[in-house]
Amino acid sequence: MTAVIINGKDIAAKKKLEIAKEVEELKSQGVTPGLAVILVGNNHASRTYVTNKQKTCQELGMHSLLIEMAEEVSEQELLSRINELNNDPKIHGILVQLPLPKHIDETKVIEAISPFKDVDGFHPINIGRMMTGQNSFLPCTPYGIMVLLEETGISVAGKHAVVVGRSNIVGKPVGQLLLNQHATVTYCHSKTKDLVKHTSQADILIAAVGIPNFIKAEHVKEGAVVIDVGINRNDAGKLCGDVAFDEVSQKCGYITPVPKGVGPMTITMLMYNTLKSAVESLNR
User: Fold this and answer.
1) pLDDT of residue 160
2) Which of 120, 203, 228, 242 is catalytic?
3) Quick one: 219 and 145 in the same domain?
4) Stretch (H or E) spanning 264
5) Over the stretch 74-89, which tens digit does the pLDDT of each residue have?
6) Residues 161 and 243 placed together within one structural domain of the fold
7) Which CATH number goes with the domain that contains 192?
8) Please, what's the b/e burial string for 26-52 (b: 16 or more CB within 10 A of its CB; e: otherwise)?
9) Which residues, listed in sequence order, are joined to residue 227 by a DSSP beta bridge?
10) Does 278 reside within a domain?
């Protein structure tokens, strides 16, 4: 068996076209979706991510605002800037690029963002609403995974989904979204005993552990759906995921590659959340 490749780049391109069309319709009503990104310090990877977000905003016809702050900026100054953005009607989404310098409390910063503008989906109110199946902003990478499954025609209802990884950004929320769609969910992590026993029972396996080529063929059930969230570098410096793609793709039914898998969906769902916030602002 050779797996069907789930091409996240193509699916993201399709969703972006849909978003761009809705942005134009919203502009005709006098509202331009606006995303503000705060970048603290000069982390190279963070700057690359921010540049990509700005570029995508412009491609989709959205208003993009980049606020750069020095590495030594005080926590209070950052919180004050967030408060200004909370009260700016032209800004519908606020994103503070992580990680932050050690002297700044990330939790305090996330909680300072208005839940109505929390397009990253990290605010406790949005997390709570997601847990209870209410309208909320969903975390972008988990949301992107659900869209990949939906667009590929893979139903999760009644399936056994195993999530390897329990981060607040991916592992925990993607398990909840799968549960919300009626999957039976098992979480595995660094303390799980006999990992293969659990993963080899999965109809849908989500690898979000952050270790290059960690998931091997022995971890995977024949014909399973494998979603690789990892973005790593192998010993040769080549980009790779958490899944040993060459061997696993010969056993599973569907698989996301790295790159061009989950990655393109994350920024796409960020744009979707910003559009959603702008639409909802019309009724507030």
Assistant:
1) 98
2) 120
3) yes
4) helix 263-281
5) 999 999 999 999 999 9
6) yes
7) 3.40.50.720
8) beeeebebbbbbbbbbebeebeebbee
9) 206
10) no
At residue 237, the pLDDT reads: 86
Q: What are phi and psi of 38, to 5 degrees?
A: -105, 125
109 & 208 share domain: no
In terms of domains, do 107 and 143 share one?
A: no
- Annotated catalytic, 10? no
The catalytic position among 53, 172, 221, 251 is: 53
Each residue of 3-12: pLDDT tens digit? 999 999 999 9
CA distances (Å), origin 251, targets 6, 70, 220: 15, 49, 7
Domain hosting residue 86, numbered range: 31-115
Decide if 69 is inside a domain: yes
Known catalytic residue at 181? no
**120 carries an active-site annotation:** yes
From the list 15, 97, 172, 176, the catalytic residue is 97
Note the pLDDT of residue 44.
Answer: 87
pLDDT for the residue numbered 283: 86
Answer for the pair 180, 143: CB distance below 8 angstroms, yes or no.
Answer: no
The CA–CA distances, whole Å, from 126 to 71, 110, 114, 183, 197 equal 28, 11, 10, 21, 34
The verdict on 76 and 157 lying in the same domain is: no
pLDDT for residue 249? 98
- The pLDDT value recorded for residue 264 is 96
Residues 90, 193, single domain; the answer is: no
* Residue 255 confidence (pLDDT): 98
Last residue of a domain, one of 99, 115, 131: 115
Q: Pick out the chain residues at pLDDT < 70.
A: none
Is the same domain home to 186 and 240?
yes
